[in-house]
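[SOLVED] Need 3D model of a two-part complex

Original post:
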Amino acid sequence: MEEQKLSDLGEFGLINRIKEKVSLYHSESIKGIGDDAAVIDNGQKYTLVSTDLLVEGVHFDLAYVPLAHLGYKAVAVNVSDIAAMNGIPKQITVSIAISSRFGLEAIDELYEGINAACENYKVDLVGGDTSSSRSGLIISVTAVGEVEKDKIAYRHGAGLNDIVCVTGDLGAAYAGLQILEREKQVFLANPEMQPELDNKSYVVGRQLKPEGRTDIVHELYAKGIVPTSMIDISDGLASEILHLSTASGLGFTVFVDNIPIENQTLETSSELNLSPITMVMNGGEDYELLMTISQADFEKIKGIPEITPIGFVTEDKNNVLVLNSGERAQITAQGWNHIKP
Amino acid sequence: MEEQKLSDLGEFGLINRIKEKVSLYHSESIKGIGDDAAVIDNGQKYTLVSTDLLVEGVHFDLAYVPLAHLGYKAVAVNVSDIAAMNGIPKQITVSIAISSRFGLEAIDELYEGINAACENYKVDLVGGDTSSSRSGLIISVTAVGEVEKDKIAYRHGAGLNDIVCVTGDLGAAYAGLQILEREKQVFLANPEMQPELDNKSYVVGRQLKPEGRTDIVHELYAKGIVPTSMIDISDGLASEILHLSTASGLGFTVFVDNIPIENQTLETSSELNLSPITMVMNGGEDYELLMTISQADFEKIKGIPEITPIGFVTEDKNNVLVLNSGERAQITAQGWNHIKP
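Solution:
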C-alpha cells in the first residue's frame, strides 16, 4: 500500500485528522480546533487564542513584500482571527526563525512593522522565541484576546432567515497580489524596469498591509449587535461561506450584485482578464469579516456603513450565488459553478 | 559602517533589543518579555502564555530523534515554561510547517507524541496552524496555563539568604546528546553498525523525552511553598543562575558537592572525558527547575525528595561555585571560571 500523501489530504483534511484524535481534559476549554480562535473560560470572560504561521516562499515573497509590511501583516492576520470571534485582541507573542542571510537591520525592519501593528491595534507584545533557521524566514504569531461571554460569535450559530453580511470590500487583496506578481516577472525579465504601481495603490496596499477589523467589533458592541455567526475572510468568500453554512447546517444565498467591490479592483480584474466575482470567491487575504445577523438587528446594521448585507440564510442547505443575470450558481470550496438547468 | 551581525548580538541580545522597543498598552499585561511565560491578569487568576519554536537542523536532528519523541518534547518544553512560573498548563496550540519529504505517517507519528504529552500533562490541544515549508520541519507550540495570583513565581524575587534548590538531577540530557551524536557519527561511517545505547538508556531518554516538572508544582502547592523565584533549566545551570541572580540583584553561591547528578551521567562524562560539572553548568535541556526558597520553608522542602538544596543567596552579587576542593569559582554565562587567587 502506498503511503497516503499530505498533498492529497489538503490543509482542512489534515486539520480534521488531527482534530479527530484530540481529547479535551478541561471544561474551561470551551472551543478547541475548528474556529478562528480557541475559547477558554477564565471565569469572568472568555480568553481567545489564535495562532498563525507565516513561511517564506509559501505565504510571502520577499521580492516584493517589505519586511515592515510583513511584520504588520503577521500581527494583523491574528488580530483578524480574534475579531472573527467578536473579541478584542490584547496580547501577542511573536516567534521568528531566521537564516543567516538576514542582518540586524532586517530584524529591526520586521519589528518596526510588528510594533506599528501593536500600536494600531493596542496589542501588547508579551513574548516569543527567536531561533536561527536553515533557510528563509518563519514567523509564528499567537494572539490572545477576550470577549464577554454573551458577545462571542462562533462559526456555528447562523439561524434561518438571518442576514448574511460582509465588511469593507472584497477581492482587492487578490488583485493586488496579481499586480505584484506581474511586476515581479517584469523586473526579473528586465531589472532596469520600474514597477508600474501608480494607479494600483489601493489593491497593492490591501495585499501588503491588510487590517484586522477590530473597528467593526467595537461598532457591533456600540450598536448592541452580536452576530449569530462570524468568520474572517482569509481564503476567499466561497470557502468562508461553506465554513459558516456547514457549521450551522443551513444554506447561504448570496447576491453578486450586493458584494462590495472597489473600482480599482474592478479595473484591475478587467486589465488582468479575470472575473471580479472569481477574485472575490476564490481569492483571499481580504481579512474582512463574513457574518450572519438576526433579522431583528437589520435596522441597527444600517447604521454601520462598513457592513453590507449580501444575502440570507436558507433551510435548503445548498449555498447559492445569484448572478447579476438572475442565474443561480452553486458555491463550492473552489469558488462557484453554474448550475446546469 | 558595516551592518551589525545577528550572530554578534546573540539570542539574549536580540531579545533585549526587541524588548526595548516594546510598549505595553494594557494594565492586564502583568509581565511581558523576559520571564519563562507572559503573565496576564484575567480577573480571578493569572493566565500564563509561553511559546517555543523548534527548527529542524537547529533544535533537533531527525537522524536520531524519532518524530513521536519530538512531538512529546515540543509539548514538554512549553509545559516546563508554565511550571517555571509555578503554574499549571491547561491548553496548547501547535503549528507545524513541513516540507514535502514528510508523508502522512510522519505527521501521524509526530501527533502521537504530541497527544501522549497532552494526555500525560492533561493539556488540551485547542488550535494551531499547518503549512508547507521549503525545507524541513518547524514546530511552534504555545502553552496557556494558569496560576493563583498569590502563587506565581517570577525570575525576580530571590531574597537574601534564600535557599537555592534544583529538582531532579542535572547534566543527563547533555550526556545523552553527546552519546546520540557519537552514535550518529559511527552510523555515518558504517551504516551496518548498530548503535550502542544499552547502558545509556537513562541519559538518552533524558535527551529524547524530557519532562516538564508540573509534578513539582503540585508538590509545592500541597506543601504550601511558593518559591521566591524560579526558572526552568533549559540552557545549562550557569545561565539560569545568572538569570535569577540578575533579576533579583543578589548573588548565588552553589556547592558542586550538592548538585544532584545521576550515576549514568557521571559514567558517561568519564567515558567522554568531559567534566560532569561542565556538563551541568554549560549543557542544557534538563528542563528541571531552579528555584529559591525562603529559609522559613526549609523544613517543608525536606518533605519533597525531588527537590535538592544546592546553595544560598548572598548580598555579594558575585555568583560563586564552591568546588569539592573548597576552591571558589566564578559562575559565568558560559559556565564557570576558576577565580585567580
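Edit: Chain B has a mean pLDDT of 94.
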